[in-house]
Amino acid sequence: MRLQILQLALAAVCSTAATAKIPFYIIHNAETPSFGRPGLTPVGKQRADCCIPNVFSDWNIGLILTCTVDRDGKEGLNCPAANRTAFPLAQSLGINIATCATGDGADDDCPSNTIKKFNKSSNQSVLIVWDSTDLEDLLENVDTDASLDNDSLGLHADLILSVNPAKLKSVGQSSMNCTGLDGTA
């Protein structure tokens, strides 16, 4: 009898963990040069190499998701910068970076499906590091209630969007507060 009660309790805990709605976070690539030149600026490199790993080191991140440039090279132009932004954190956490395509012909459900699949076997959070020029599509594809109509949303390299799926994908925002990089709000 005790064994059956223990098995039922364990099954309830396991099924709850598998369906838990774990918050995930979205940032975009660190600062890039003007005129569409590739790479990160010196400030962007400092944000990627020092600030982001310091900020997210204790956030229980188990998966980093970023984007890839579409096949014709027209969409996702800042995806290489997003990947460069994500790499130091992934390296410090010892995790791989997963990717989803952007642009025409891309699987719009890839970000949501990747998060759902990861959450089936983990209770860790996901950090999405995305192309700054494609944030509006990403926010739509992960079914948030966020909109880029709000001038403060998605336009600053220091912005962290916190998405809480348990509250109808509501979005909160905060600053990375990188000393020497982020100005006063």
TrEMBL record:
Official protein name in the record: Uncharacterized protein
Signal peptide: 1-20
Top-rank lineage group of the source organism: Eukaryota
Keywords for this protein: Signal
